[in-house]
Design goal:
With about 280 residues, this protein is an alpha/beta fold. Helix content is about 35%, strand content about 25%. Among the domains are: about 50 residues, no CATH class; about 120 residues, Rossmann fold, CATH 3.40.50.300. It contains 8 helices and 10 strands. The strands form 2 sheets. The chain has a 6-stranded mixed beta sheet with strand order 6-7-8-3-9-10, sandwiched between helices.
Amino acid sequence: MSAAGAAPMRAVVSLAERAAARSVDHVALDGVAKIYNPGTRQPVEALAPTSFTIKAGEFVALLGPSGCGKSTLLMMVAGLEAPSAGSIAVGGKPMTAPRPEIGIMFQDPTLLPWKSAIDNVLFPFQAMNRPVALHRDRAAALLDRVGLAGFHDRKPRQLSGGMRQRVAICRALVHEPELLLMDEPFSALDALSRDEMNLVLMNMWEGRHRTALFVTHSIREAVYLSDRVLVMSRRPGRIVEDVRIPFTRPRDLAVGETVAFNEICGHLRGKIERMHRP
């Protein structure tokens, strides 16, 4: 077969492989619960037994009221917190400790103040004892892609809040993680900056469709970013609804003005408000 004839076949295989990957559970929680201070007079049940799965390449949001256990659940998926009961598997393997193939973004950018933007992006390689110089071009390209060309050598104090979060996105993605975990990364930003960062995140995510779990209080943010929204109850948290978002990708902010988008937001808002009633 000629090279010209072989190219379409490679494309078909690539699409088939992508479809097969999307059918696999990349994250699986089975009866996961968390109790703080167990065995004492004042145990705190943060998370009731919870089970759900996330397909490879899916973007899933955890939405719920403050204190419902969203961040606790995320930290357990990251291997930074041990569950009191149940099991967590990522990539088919039990999750017992942090792994290099998982990227994490926190509420605060947590940048090292003495390092430049590009050196902060490269820090995961330093932490994993990998050669940093080999990845400098990739780090620079990521910073350019999020609009930080010309700011590679700036220290965090020389960057705005939105710019620091762009650096944090690049740091989370620079080692090409298979799973991206985000704990309200844009909650401290004003509304305009938050919308801008949602666009930046979506543009970065669309390039490879990494599996993602995103914690947020914002209903509109959850609906805009996600393939599915998991609604959590008040403490002890549990999943009370799994809402699939029907909008095609890629998306721009204009989808937020549509009737369908606002109907979904209204449904989710009503669900959460009902949980707050006595």
